[in-house]
Amino acid sequence: MSRRAAEWLAERVRQKPDALLCLATGATPTRTYQLLAQQGAMEPALFARARVLKLDEWGGLAVDDPASCEHHLRSLLIGPLGMESRYQGFQCQPADPQAECNRIARWLEQDGPIDVCVLGLGVNGHVGFNEPAPMLQPHAHVAQLADSSLQHAMLALSRGRPGFGLTLGMAELLHAREVLLLVSGPAKREPMRRLLDARIASEFPASLLSLHPALTLLCDQAALP
């Protein structure tokens, strides 16, 4: 899955060298990003103009916390590919979280749209920190984290505990030109089954991705229901 995802992403960047990539973090895309960094080392011009937008962040963690999305992306991709000047994302400890969400929404409105959005599938069906709810937020917003999200494996590495999430909204994700959804591991079998049922509901936010005209789903065998 990771090899195929890395090949797919590299090809999209070759087709559009200044592509804006919106990237999720976590265990599922880690190997994909490692492979992209290796490809970038062999082909320096590949990512010379590409841009990266961080999908979401654990609000309240220190910027250098090993569990932060910031640390994850910078260590795997942004640093190795020298993309610091072409990288944008939520601050980890903003003084005003809602103002930070407004800043990211304005940046995306000015510098978007997203060309490729890389997403993972949460065990409760969340994408980014768009958590199950009677209504979903369209734009970047402060999210109340579900209990299942607070059990995320990333947080086992943390020196603190997040108090909230910062995330792009569903409308911003669905306005991406292409969406790449990566699903891996046996813990994702049940959410994968629900996703393949193709029933659209805000209580399972990932179901809205089926409305996207250019959705690519890659999964490993362990995640197949």
Description:
The protein is built from 6 helices and 9 strands, in the order αβαββαβαβββαβαβ. The protein starts with a helix and ends in a 6-residue tail after the last strand. The strands form 2 sheets. The chain has a 6-stranded parallel sheet with strand order 4-2-1-5-8-9, covered by helices on one side. Strands 3-7-6 form a 3-stranded antiparallel sheet, covered by helices on one side. The protein has one domain (2-185, 217-221): 3-Layer(aba) Sandwich (Rossmann fold), CATH 3.40.50. By secondary structure, the chain is an alpha/beta fold.
Radius of gyration: 16 Å
Average pLDDT, to the nearest integer? 96
Number of helices: 6
Number of strands: 9
Task: Give a brief outline of the structure.
This protein has 225 residues and is α/β, with parallel strands linked by helices.
Could you list some keywords that capture this structure?
225 residues; alpha/beta; Rossmann fold; six-stranded parallel β-sheet; three-stranded antiparallel β-sheet; 9 strands; 30% helix
Detail the topology: elements first, then pairings:
Elements: H1 2-15, E1 20-23, H2 27-42, E2 51-54, E3 56-59, H3 69-78, E4 87-88, H4 97-111, E5 116-120, E6 141-143, E7 164-167, H5 170-174, E8 178-183, H6 189-196, E9 215-219
Parallel strand pairs: 1-2, 1-5, 2-4, 5-8, 8-9
Antiparallel strand pairs: 3-7, 6-7
Helix pairs in contact: 1-2, 2-3
